[in-house]
């Protein structure tokens, strides 16, 4: 009885199977990860690195106008060097917008992270009821788009249509105008806190669930109360998650744009240059000066990078010092 002939990978009967040499197999194994990275690398270059590079290139150029600026060749794009950057650094509207965002961030970041930590600790408690529903209810505002959230809260802030003002009027209580003056910062901060607390809570809560149960059992055997466990065990062990959420919050604060832009038609207290990104948008699409806008956007990106990198480096240095102790 004849033995069956093995079919090779090429579909030829009886042909010997050629095994690749060890060197060839090793080269293929080493190059395989790079082939998988090609699609992601191309997308990164086309939709991230290339636009950034083009914006930086535009920031070093300007439009030179000859005469009245009419006719062919009257407007010419020329090299400007650092002129756009010096103009941006001396622009009072951009600097005032940065100060307003700084005050806005001083309200948003601590309140949002404090509530996120509080909710995460409460959900991680053994006595919590309806934990899945509560997690979903806290996280749900994060799923609402920022523009929709700003529109929702904007109409709730208007005295003529808000049910809150109707209730205050029925009880004879004062009706503050949240879209004018100092309360405007609270109104904008409320939108950010309402929308961002759920995401930060999920990050911190996930870190809490990763703590081994043996740690809590040992603390209980030593007589630790739930409050002591939260303050001395849970919060220190989720410190990396707190750093991560603080890092994200700083970036989101410096890039605030949707909330003041949506509220602008509802009040005169929000100008077209209320935040740095609104100033960039106004210069690029309102004034038609994309070169100045590119320089301002580059400065905002550099400021975000410096602040984030400085915060992370200071945090890592502190962690190393505590580990050395």
Question: What does this entry show, briefly?
Answer:
The protein is mainly alpha-helical and 325 residues long. Helix content is 70%, strand content 3%.
- Strand content of the residues, in percent? under 5%
If you consult CATH, what is the topology of the largest domain?
Answer: MetI-like fold
- Count of distinct structural domains: 2
- What is the helical fraction, as a range of percent? 55-70%
Question: What does this protein structure show overall?
Answer:
- This protein is mostly helical and 325 residues long.
- It folds into two domains: 37-79, no CATH class; 91-324, MetI-like (MetI-like fold, Orthogonal Bundle).
- The chain is 70% helix and 3% strand.
- The protein has 13 helices and two strands; from the N terminus they run H-E-E-H-H-H-H-H-H-H-H-H-H-H-H.
- A two-stranded antiparallel ribbon has the order 1-2.
- Helix 5 packs across helix 7 (183-209) and helix 10 packs antiparallel against helix 13.
- The chain is flat.
């Amino acid at each position: 009885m004849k033995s069956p002939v093995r079919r090779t990978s090429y579909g030829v009967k009886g042909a010997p199977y050629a095994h690749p040499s060890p060197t060839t197999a090793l080269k293929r194994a080493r190059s395989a990860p790079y082939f998988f990275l090609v699609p992601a690398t191309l997308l990164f270059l086309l939709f991230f690195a290339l636009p950034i590079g083009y914006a930086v290139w535009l920031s070093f150029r300007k439009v030179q106008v000859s005469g009245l600026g009419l006719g062919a060749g009257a407007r010419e794009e020329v090299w400007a060097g650092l002129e756009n950057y010096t103009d941006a650094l001396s622009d009072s509207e951009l600097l005032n917008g940065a100060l307003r965002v700084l005050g806005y961030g001083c309200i948003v970041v601590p309140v949002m992270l404090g509530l996120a930590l509080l909710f995460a600790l409460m959900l991680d408690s053994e006595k919590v009821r309806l934990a899945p529903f509560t997690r979903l209810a806290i996280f749900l505002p994060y799923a609402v788009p920022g523009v929709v959230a700003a529109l929702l809260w904007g109409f709730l802030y208007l005295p003529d249509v808000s049910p809150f003002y109707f209730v205050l009027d029925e009880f004879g209580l004062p009706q503050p105008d949240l879209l004018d003056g100092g309360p405007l910062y609270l109104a904008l901060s409320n939108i950010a806190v309402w929308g961002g607390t759920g995401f930060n809570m999920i990050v911190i809560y996930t870190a809490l669930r990763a703590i081994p149960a043996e740690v809590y059992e040992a603390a209980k055997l030593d007589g630790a109360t739930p409050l002591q466990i939260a303050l001395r065990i849970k919060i220190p062990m989720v410190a990396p998650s707190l750093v991560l959420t603080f890092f994200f919050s700083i970036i989101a604060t410096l890039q605030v744009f949707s909330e003041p832009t949506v509220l602008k038609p509802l009040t005169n207290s929000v100008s077209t240059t209320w935040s740095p990104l609104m100033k960039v948008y106004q210069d690029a699409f309102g004034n038609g000066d994309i070169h100045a806008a590119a320089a301002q956007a580059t400065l905002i990106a550099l400021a975000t990078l410096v602040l984030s990198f400085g915060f992370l480096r200071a945090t890592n240095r502190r962690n190393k010092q505590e580990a050395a102790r």
